[in-house]
Design a protein that fits this description.
The chain is an alpha+beta fold and about 240 residues long. The protein has helices at about 5-10, 15-25, 85, 90-95, 115-125, 145-150, 185-190, and strands at about 1-5, 30, 35, 40, 50, 55, 60-65, 95-100, 105-115, 130-140, 165-170, 175-180, 195-205, 210, 220. It folds into three domains: about 1-55, RNA-binding S4 domain (Structural Genomics Hypothetical 15.5 Kd Protein In mrcA-pckA Intergenic Region, Chain A), CATH 3.10.290.10; about 60-125 and about 210-225, Pseudouridine synthase I, catalytic domain, N-terminal subdomain (Alpha-Beta Plaits, 2-Layer Sandwich), CATH 3.30.70.580; about 130-205, Alpha-Beta Plaits. It contains seven helices and 15 strands. InterPro entries: PsdUridine_s_RsuA/RluB/E/F_cat, PsdUridine_synth_cat_dom_sf, PsdUridine_synth_RsuA/RluA, PsdUridine_synth_RsuA/RluB/E/F, PsdUridine_synth_RsuA/RluB_CS, RsuA_PseudoU_synthase, S4_RNA-bd, S4_RNA-bd_sf.
Length: about 240
């Protein structure tokens, strides 16, 4: 059971004061009955209608977004659009946040959730969850690029990266797999071996690949089976 005002607030229908007023106006029904008291407890699976619109309540959300270029992986930013601006407002109200981050010009798979424990497992380097990127690069790809990434790249500022994978997939293209998420990590790793990344796209996290049916800027919910896939480590795959 959950308080009606909490359910509606979680679903993006305003503050507790606004929801109280909404209920008093008679615009809220629960299982077909008008409810004027916003403090009553209702079943989480109840059919709640607000002004003729069915409320889509989710206690916990797990989303896959095909992040486009030009938006930041943040919940709010006064200067540029964020990934939350792409989603319906109910997700911001329920405190859904990006799981990790992609640079503003990087595209591809971005997970979002309000399950903090799950999110921590996905992004923690200790969990060894692989993140796979497709990189377009300028410069001559070294013949030993795979060995150098596997040995652990030391960035120009002295920061040591965990062992990673780098495989040439075409002329000027690399598939890079890392298990951590340092600031601009893939671009900085490539710079160490003499390459400049001109475009970067994340295609996979753990055992979960970006849905090919999602266009840039589109999202969908993860299925129950998919929720466990981003938690798969390199040892599991």
């Amino acid at each position: 059971m959950i308080r009606l005002d909490k359910l509606l607030g979680h679903s993006g229908y305003g503050t507790r004061k606004e929801i109280k007023s909404l209920c008093k106006s008679g615009d809220v029904t629960v299982n077909g009955e008008i409810v004027r008291d916003s403090s009553v407890k209702v079943d989480e699976g109840a059919t709640v209608i607000v002004a003729g619109e069915k409320v889509e309540y989710e206690a916990v959300s797990y989303l896959m977004l095909h992040k486009p270029a030009g938006v930041v992986s943040a919940t709010q930013d006064s200067r540029v659009r964020t990934v939350l601006d792409i989603l319906p407002s109910r997700y911001a109200a329920s405190r859904v946040a990006p799981v990790g981050r992609l640079d503003i010009d990087t595209t591809g798979l971005l997970l979002l959730s309000n399950d903090g424990t799950w999110a921590h497992k996905v992004i923690s380097p200790k969990k060894h969850v692989p993140k796979v990127y497709e990189a377009q690069v300028e410069g001559v790809i070294p013949a030993d690029v795979g060995e150098r990434f596997a040995a652990g790249i030391v960035l120009e500022d002295g920061v040591e990266c965990l062992p990673a994978r780098a495989e040439k997939t075409a002329e000027g293209r690399l598939q890079i797999t890392v298990c951590e998420g340092k600031f601009h990590q893939v671009k900085r790793m490539c710079s160490v071996v003499g390459l400049t990344v001109t475009s970067l796209h994340r295609s996979r996290i753990g055992g979960l690949a970006l849905d090919k049916n999602l266009q840039a800027g589109e999202y969908r919910k993860l299925t129950k089976e998919e929720i466990a896939l981003p938690l798969l480590s390199t040892e599991d795959l």
